[in-house]
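haha ok so turns out i had the wrong file open the whole time. this is the CORRECT one, sorry everyone. sequence first:
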Amino acid sequence: MKICITSIGPNLEDMIDPRFGRCRFFIILNTESMQFEAFDNSAINASGGAGIQSAQFVADKGIEAVLTGNVGPNAFKTLNAAGLKIFVGIPSISIKQAVEEFKSGKFKEIENPSVKSKFGMGGGGAGRGMSMNAGNVNQQQSVSSLSNDEELTALKEESQKMKEGIEKIQKRIDELTEKDWWVNRK
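then structure:
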């Protein structure tokens, strides 16, 4: 079965992103082979219509089901119209673990949106929201489906990934600076 999982990163070890329309990545995965592709969500910073844009993108990938934390009414209607099964309430676990639990039948398909419109922006629904801005990362994360411990774990993991990314960038800067110094020295 070909499914889509919302993720905070592009790998199977990354955690579920609790938002659908404004998730960071879509992981499109074959549940039999575990082969997958990761796609940046181009609608993450949309001023409006992120749920619909995301749902259309996912539906065009030929999937059968979506696993996420929450889905709003516009995304739900679009996914439902495309004939996709929608599973929400997925806890803050790794993509790999979510797939295993999905395959074991742990999650239930929904028949209605799980949150109100604009929920992923932190302003709608019954949950609390959080906005983080670190360089080009403009992530607004609704976390109502996460316990404090789950949210803390997800944030620590995201922070570690950012640190590793910064270390890679700094290493490359150092390499280029050293190379320039040797070239200019001659």
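The radius of gyration is 18 Å.
again sry for the mixup
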